[in-house]
Amino acid sequence: MKEKRDETIILRLSKTEKNRIYEKMLSMGIRSLSAYIRKMALDGYCLHLDLKELRRMAYLLQMCSNNLNQYAKTANENGRVYAADMEDLRQRLDELIDIGKQILSKLAEL
């Protein structure tokens, strides 16, 4: 059962402080001031992870998976696999490994 929020805290701020809070809130992708302040007060920090590399990695994984299925189908039908296809797949996998390392290094900085 969700806990009822019926208590209020009044907070006095300068205009500059208020603007900074709103800027930080919006930069985190949070639209509710109450949610943002509650999160900051209870947990001490908010993280907004913008991992474009992760989206790219997921896309490349999907493409590699599709290509691998096509290569397996061709190998089953013809009994052979083309070196150019394997090199293309190898390059994509190397890119995935590099992106994975970038993501891990960014996460380690947090």
Got a strand count?
0
Q: Please report the number of helical segments.
A: 4
Q: What is the straight-line distance between the termini?
A: 33 Å
- Radius of gyration, in Å, reads 24 Å
Along the chain, the helix and strand elements come as: HHHH
Overall morphology: elongated
Structural category: mainly alpha
How would you portray this structure in words?
This protein has 110 residues and is an all-alpha fold. 71% of the residues lie in helices and 0% in strands. The protein contains 4 helices and no strands. Helix 3 (52-78) runs antiparallel to helix 4. The radius of gyration is 24 Å and the shape is elongated.
Quick gist of this model?
The chain has 110 residues and is mostly helical. It has helices at 15-27, 33-43, 52-78, 83-109.
